[in-house]
C-alpha cells in the first residue's frame, strides 16, 4: 500500500468507476472528490456503486470551476483525508476521472518504491519559462481575479486592464517564489503533509485564493519550500493545446499510447471504448522503461502549429489569412520571366531543358491561360479559361503554386497580359522575377501592322510595363527582382541568363553551353527611332543606336579564360 | 456603425423567424417521433424530393457516423421515398405542400423545425446527396467531434461542398438503391477554388470545382457557392439565411482563421452527378424551383447536352479524408 490515489471527478462517472476499480484492485487506496456541481442523486448513486470497495472513500465536496480555487481546495481536503485514513501510503498520486493508467499499477509502485523521497511535480519559475497563453504569466500572481474567465469574460478582461493601468500589485507572502506546472502531481507523504500542516497555510491559502488558475501554481510553488528532491515533471501524460485546453485521446491513439511508456494519460474521451478495454484489461508488456512521450509530443505540437501558423501558401475554407498574415503568400519559390520569350524564339523549351522545371507560357495572357504544352487544364484541375482565372487572379497563382508543390514553376509575364497579379508578384518573397524591359517592342517590330496602330500599342505597353516595374521597385516589393533594359541584356545575354539560372538554384546545373536563339534585331534601332520621330519616346529598352542593328545578332559565346 | 449593423442583422434574424413560422403552415406531420430525442442527441435535418433511390444509403451513412435522430421534410415527392423514410425508427417526417423556391429552398421549413426541436443539440443540415466528412471520421464517431467542439467552445463547424463526378459520361454507370454513390462518382477537383469574404455576414464565398469549370466559364461569378456551415450547436435564436451557406448571428459564420492558422474543417462530398442527374436537371428546369431562376440547372442542361464528361486528366480520385487534408481542402486544425 505504497501509492494512494486522489481522484477529482466531475463527469463520465461510469468511466471513473472503472478506473477506480482498476486502482483498487491493484491495492491502491483511492480518495474521491466529486465536484459539487454534480447533482445529489447522481452522487449518491456513484457512492453506492463503489460501496463494495473498502479502500475507496469520498472526501468533502467543493464546487470546482475551471481556473478557480475550488480545485485546489478539493485536492487539499482529499489528500488530507488520504494521509489520515491510510497511514501506509508513501506517495499520493493526484489524478482526474478522465485519467487512464497505461501501465500495470505494479510498475508504477515499483518505480515509486525505488524513488521513495522523490516528488514528481512539474514546477517551473514564471520568470524563465513562458508557460501560459494570453500574456498572463507572472501577472497571475500579482493581479486579482474576482471574475470568472468562462462566464464573465468581459469583466475579467476589463478588470485586468484596469489593474494594469493603475499599476496595482498584490504582495506575495514572504518566502514564496511563484512556480507553475501541470496540475497533476505525485508527492511523498513528507512533502504533502508539510504543505498541508504548515502553520502559515492560512496565509498562503488566502493569497492563492485570488491567484488565477491556482491549481497550476499552489502545490507547484509550495513544494519548493519543503521538498528534498523534486523531479520537475509530471508522471501523467497530459498535453495542452494553444488555448490551455487538454488534448483528448481517442481509440486511434491506442498504439501511440502503448508505445509511450507513460504511467497515466489524460484526458481520455469517455466513449473511447477500445482504450478503456485495452488498458484496463490487458497487461501492457512494458518493463522498467522510463516514460517516453516524444512521439505524442510531436503530434500534438504539430497540431498546435497547424492551428496557429497553418500551412504556408494555402488558402482554403478554414484558412483565409488577412494581407500580411499569410506566413508565406505562396507555398514554394517560382520564377517569372518577362520579355524573354519576345527576345528568344525558343526560350520556353530551352529553359525547360536547362533547368528541368515546369515552364509555362503567359499564364495571364488575355486570350487564355497558356499552360505548359497548351494544356486546357492543369494540376488541381485549373482551367485555361481567362475569365475564370481573372475571377480571382490572386488565388489562381496561389492555387497553381500550391497544387504543384515539389515542382518548381516558371512562367512568362508581360505588359500584354492582364495585370491583376502584378502587385502580388512583386510582394511575394517566393517570386524570382527577371525582366528584360522594353522587349515587348520586338513583336511589334516584327509585326505587319500600320505604324499608327503600332505607335498607340507601344505607348500603352510602355505605360503598363513602367507601372509594373515601379511595383517591382517599390518599398513593398519582396520578390527577388532583376531588371535589364533590352539594350543592356543583349550586350551580354549569356552572362545574364547564367545569373538567372544560378539564382534558381537548379540542381546539377553546369555552365550554360547552349544558347536560346535570339530574334533577328536588324533594323530594330531604326524602328525605335521611328517611334521617337512620331513623338512616342520608347525609354524602357535603353539606348539603341539608331543606325544599325547592335553587334550580337548571333549570341556571343565567350569561353571562360583563366589567367594563371 | 458596428452596433447599427448588428442591430439590423438582429432584426433580419427576427424576420426570418417570423417567416419560418408563417411557412410552417405548409408543413404537416407525417410521423412524429421527436419524443425519442434525448438531451445531447445529434440530429440530422434534411429536405428531399423524389430521392427514394438515394435515401437508404443516406440514412445508413449518417447512422454509421453516429447521428441519433433524423428530421426530414418531404417536398411533395411522387415516388416511395416518403413511405420508406416514415418506416424508419429514428426518423420524424413532415410533408411540405408548398413551393420549394418560396420557402427559400427549404430554409424556412428547416428553420422552423430546428427552432422547435434542435435547441441545444448539435445539428447537421444536409441534403440527401451530401455526405459529411470530418477529420478522423474513419476512426471517430461524430460525437467525438462535437464533444471536442464543445470542449473548445466552438459553436459551428464548416464543411465545403466538394462536387464528385464519375469518369466518362454521367449516365454510363447506373446508381443502385443503397449503393455508396462515391463508388461511381469517385473523382473531384482538388485545387481550383476561389474564395472571397462577405463583409456583412462574415461568411466566405467559395466557388470553383467542376461546375465552374464546365458550366460557368463565361460567368464565373454566377457559379454556385460551395461554402457551407452544416454542423452547428443549434440554439432557437439562430437562423439559416441562405441554404447552409450563411447563418445568423454572423459569428457562426467565422469558421476560418484570418491570422494565418487553420481551423478544423470538414467536407461535404456532393454526389450529385450520377446517372440520375440529367433527369433531375430537366425536371427542376421545368419546375423552375431553384436558385436564381434555375440558372444553375439551365447551365447544366445545356452543358450536359454538349459534353457530359466532367472528368479531366488532372482530376483527383477520392481515397479518404486524409487525402483531402493533405490536398488542403479540409483541415484537422488543432484536433489531433
UniProtKB/TrEMBL annotation, chain A:
Membrane topology summary: Single-pass type II membrane protein
A GO cellular component entry from the record: membrane
Signal peptide: none
Keyword Mitochondrion: no
Top-level taxon: Bacteria
Major location category of this protein: endoplasmic reticulum
Region of interest called Disordered, as start-end residue ranges on this chain: 545-564
Coiled-coil stretches noted in the UniProt entry, renumbered to this chain: none
UniProt protein name: Peptide O-xylosyltransferase
Positions with biased composition (Basic residues): 555-564
A GO term for molecular function: metal ion binding
InterPro entries hit by this protein: DUF5927, Glyco_trans_14, XYLT
Species of provenance: Pseudooctadecabacter jejudonensis
Keywords tagged on the record: Disulfide bond, Endoplasmic reticulum, Glycoprotein, Glycosyltransferase, Golgi apparatus, Membrane, Metal-binding, Signal-anchor, Transferase, Transmembrane, Transmembrane helix
Keyword flag Glycosyltransferase: yes
One GO term of the biological process aspect: heparan sulfate proteoglycan biosynthetic process
Pfam families (alphabetical): Branch, DUF5927
Domain DUF5927 per the UniProt entry, residue ranges: 266-564
Cell location: Endoplasmic reticulum membrane; Golgi apparatus membrane
Automatic annotation (TrEMBL), chain B:
Pfam families assigned: Glyco_tranf_2_4
Protein name, entry field: Glycosyl transferase family 2
Amino acid at each position: 500500500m505504497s501509492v494512494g490515489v486522489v481522484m477529482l471527478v466531475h463527469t463520465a462517472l461510469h468511466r471513473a468507476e472503472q478506473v477506480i476499480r482498476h486502482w483498487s484492485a491493484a491495492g491502491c487506496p483511492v480518495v474521491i472528490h466529486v465536484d459539487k456541481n454534480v447533482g445529489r442523486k447522481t452522487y449518491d448513486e456513484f457512492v453506492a456503486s463503489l460501496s463494495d470497495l473498502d479502500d475507496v472513500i469520498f472526501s468533502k465536496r467543493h464546487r470546482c470551476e475551471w481556473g478557480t480555487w475550488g480545485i485546489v481546495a478539493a485536492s487539499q481536503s482529499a489528500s488530507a483525508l488520504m494521509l489520515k485514513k491510510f497511514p501506509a501510503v508513501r506517495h499520493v498520486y493526484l489524478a482526474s476521472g478522465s485519467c487512464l493508467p497505461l501501465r500495470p499499477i505494479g510498475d508504477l509502485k515499483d518505480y515509486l518504491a525505488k524513488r521513495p523521497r522523490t516528488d514528481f511535480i512539474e514546477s517551473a519559475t514564471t520568470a524563465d519559462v513562458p508557460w501560459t497563453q494570453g500574456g498572463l504569466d507572472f501577472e497571475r500572481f500579482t493581479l486579482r481575479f474576482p471574475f470568472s474567465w468562462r462566464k464573465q469574460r468581459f469583466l475579467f478582461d476589463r478588470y485586468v486592464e484596469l489593474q494594469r493601468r493603475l499599476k496595482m500589485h498584490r504582495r506575495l507572502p514572504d518566502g514564496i517564489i511563484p512556480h507553475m506546472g501541470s496540475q497533476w502531481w505525485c508527492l511523498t507523504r513528507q512533502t504533502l503533509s508539510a504543505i498541508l500542516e504548515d502553520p502559515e497555510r492560512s496565509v498562503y491559502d488566502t493569497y492563492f485564493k485570488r491567484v488565477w488558475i491556482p491549481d497550476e501554481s499552489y502545490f507547484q510553488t509550495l513544494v519548493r519550500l519543503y521538498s528534498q528532491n523534486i523531479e520537475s515533471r509530471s508522471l501523467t501524460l497530459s498535453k495542452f493545446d494553444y488555448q490551455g485546453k487538454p488534448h483528448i485521446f481517442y481509440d486511434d491513439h491506442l498504439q501511440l499510447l502503448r508505445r509511450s511508456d507513460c504511467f497515466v494519460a489524460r484526458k481520455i474521451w469517455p466513449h473511447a471504448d477500445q482504450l478503456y478495454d485495452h488498458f484496463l484489461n490487458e497487461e501492457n508488456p512494458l518493463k522498467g522503461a522510463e516514460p517516453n512521450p516524444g512521439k505524442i509530443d510531436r503530434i500534438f505540437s504539430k497540431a498546435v502549429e497547424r492551428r496557429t501558423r497553418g500551412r504556408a501558401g494555402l488558402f482554403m475554407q478554414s484558412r483565409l489569412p488577412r494581407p500580411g498574415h499569410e506566413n508565406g503568400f505562396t507555398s514554394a519559390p517560382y520564377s517569372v520571366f518577362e520579355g524573354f520569350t519576345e527576345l528568344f524564339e525558343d526560350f520556353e523549351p530551352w529553359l525547360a531543358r536547362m533547368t528541368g522545371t515546369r515552364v509555362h507560357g503567359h499564364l495571364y495572357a488575355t486570350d487564355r491561360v497558356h499552360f505548359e504544352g497548351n494544356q486546357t487544364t492543369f494540376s488541381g484541375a485549373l482551367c485555361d479559361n481567362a475569365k475564370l482565372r481573372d475571377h480571382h487572379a490572386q488565388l489562381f497563382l496561389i492555387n497553381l503554386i500550391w497544387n504543384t508543390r515539389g515542382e518548381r514553376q516558371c512562367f512568362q509575364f508581360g505588359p500584354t497580359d492582364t495585370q491583376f497579379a502584378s502587385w502580388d508578384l512583386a510582394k511575394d518573397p517566393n517570386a524570382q522575377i527577371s525582366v528584360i524591359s522594353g522587349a515587348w517592342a520586338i513583336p511589334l517590330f516584327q509585326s505587319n501592322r500600320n505604324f499608327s496602330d503600332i505607335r498607340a500599342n507601344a505607348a500603352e505597353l510602355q505605360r503598363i510595363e513602367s507601372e509594373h516595374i515601379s511595383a517591382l521597385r517599390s518599398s513593398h516589393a519582396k520578390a527577388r527582382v532583376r531588371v535589364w533594359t533590352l539594350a543592356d541584356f543583349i550586350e551580354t545575354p549569356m552572362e545574364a541568363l547564367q545569373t538567372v539560372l544560378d539564382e534558381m538554384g537548379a540542381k546539377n546545373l553546369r555552365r550554360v553551353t547552349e544558347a536560346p536563339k535570339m530574334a533577328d534585331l536588324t533594323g530594330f534601332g531604326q524602328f525605335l527611332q521611328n517611334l521617337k520621330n512620331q513623338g512616342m519616346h520608347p525609354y524602357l529598352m535603353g539606348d539603341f543606336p539608331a543606325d544599325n542593328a547592335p553587334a550580337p545578332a548571333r549570341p556571343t559565346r565567350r569561353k571562360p579564360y583563366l589567367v594563371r | 456603425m458596428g452596433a447599427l449593423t448588428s442591430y439590423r442583422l438582429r432584426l433580419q434574424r427576427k424576420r426570418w423567424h417570423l417567416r419560418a413560422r408563417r411557412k410552417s403552415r405548409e408543413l404537416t406531420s407525417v410521423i412524429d417521433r421527436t419524443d425519442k430525442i434525448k438531451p445531447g442527441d445529434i440530429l440530422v435535418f434534411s429536405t428531399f424530393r423524389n430521392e427514394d433511390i438515394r435515401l437508404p444509403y443516406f440514412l445508413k451513412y449518417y447512422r454509421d457516423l453516429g447521428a441519433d435522430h433524423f428530421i426530414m421534410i418531404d417536398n411533395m415527392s411522387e415516388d416511395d421515398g416518403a413511405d420508406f423514410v416514415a418506416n424508419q425508427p429514428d426518423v420524424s417526417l413532415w410533408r411540405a405542400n408548398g413551393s420549394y423556391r418560396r420557402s427559400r429552398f427549404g430554409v424556412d421549413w428547416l428553420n422552423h423545425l430546428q427552432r422547435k426541436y434542435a435547441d441545444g443539440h448539435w445539428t447537421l443540415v444536409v441534403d440527401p446527396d451530401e455526405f459529411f466528412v470530418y477529420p478522423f471520421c474513419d476512426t471517430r464517431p461524430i460525437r467525438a467531434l462535437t464533444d471536442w467542439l464543445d470542449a473548445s467552445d466552438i459553436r459551428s463547424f464548416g464543411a465545403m461542398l466538394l462536387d464528385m463526378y464519375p469518369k466518362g459520361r454521367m449516365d454510363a454507370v447506373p446508381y443502385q438503391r443503397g449503393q455508396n454513390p462515391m463508388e461511381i462518382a469517385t473523382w473531384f477537383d482538388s485545387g481550383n477554388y476561389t474564395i472571397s469574404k462577405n463583409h456583412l455576414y462574415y461568411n466566405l464565398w467559395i466557388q470553383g470545382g467542376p461546375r465552374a469549370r464546365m458550366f460557368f466559364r463565361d460567368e464565373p461569378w454566377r457559379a454556385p457557392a460551395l461554402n457551407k456551415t452544416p454542423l452547428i450547436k443549434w440554439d432557437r435564436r439562430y437562423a439559416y439565411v441562405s441554404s447552409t451557406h450563411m447563418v445568423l448571428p454572423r459569428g457562426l459564420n467565422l469558421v476560418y482563421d484570418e491570422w494565418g492558422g487553420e481551423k478544423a474543417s470538414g467536407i461535404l462530398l456532393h454526389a450529385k452527378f450520377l446517372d440520375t442527374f440529367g433527369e433531375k436537371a430537366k425536371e427542376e428546369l421545368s419546375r423552375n424551383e431553384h436558385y436564381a431562376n434555375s440558372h444553375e440547372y439551365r447551365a447544366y442542361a445545356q452543358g450536359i447536352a454538349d459534353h457530359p464528361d466532367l472528368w479531366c486528366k488532372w482530376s483527383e480520385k477520392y481515397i479518404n479524408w486524409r487525402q483531402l487534408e493533405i490536398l488542403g481542402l479540409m483541415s484537422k486544425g488543432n484536433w489531433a
